[in-house]
UniProtKB/TrEMBL annotation:
Subcellular location: Cell membrane
Pfam families hit by this protein: LysE
Keywords, alphabetical: Cell membrane, Membrane, Transmembrane, Transmembrane helix
UniProt GO MF annotations: homoserine transmembrane transporter activity
NCBIfam families: PRK10520.1 (NF007812)
Database matches in PANTHER family: ARGININE EXPORTER PROTEIN ARGO (PTHR30086), HOMOSERINE_HOMOSERINE LACTONE EFFLUX PROTEIN (PTHR30086:SF14)
Stated name of the protein: Lysine exporter protein (LYSE/YGGA)
Chief localization: membrane
Amino acid sequence: MDFHVWLTYLATTIVFSIYPGSGAVNTISNAIRYGVRGSVPAIAGLQLGLSIHLALVGVGLGTLLAQSATAFAVLKWLGVAYLVWLGWTKWREVPQLMKNGVGQEDGPRPALFWPAVFVNITNPKSIVFLVALFPQFLHADYPLWSQALILSVTCVLVDIIVMLGYASLAAPLTHLVQNEKGMRTQNRIFGSLFIAAGALLSGASR
């Protein structure tokens, strides 16, 4: 893969990752409550979901999904249902102060991993975007598998850096959730954002 082609792909991927979506909402919500370190499992979960999308695109299933109205609709409505359920659960969550009386809790939070995986994996727009993006940067003169690997690793690394950036920006807001009222407000704000993300996804088309 030519270096200038990779740079163009890198710039495109950065824009794709920075664009706020359900993954960013998930990361910011976790970072405010658990800090940057505590949100790492959720960021890792997002990357597993993204990696599954990349793998599907790599083996050609992504193209099938992008072209099949039925498959797209099924995955889309699963994503909508999951985001709305996540938002409703967050909205109704009972505030629980940490042992030290503040919003953050020391150490990682493995329980955040799988919900984050499903946040990303149930977003069909990601697959459609990747299906449209990948062919633009593949060259017939180079091995396709190595190019796909480079593009996939670049995409995941960029998204990790962007999500850590979101978490770092959100973590200083932890003081807003140091009491029960603040945590309830935070839960309802991000619950509403998850529901809004589901509403936006419901209007998505191929």
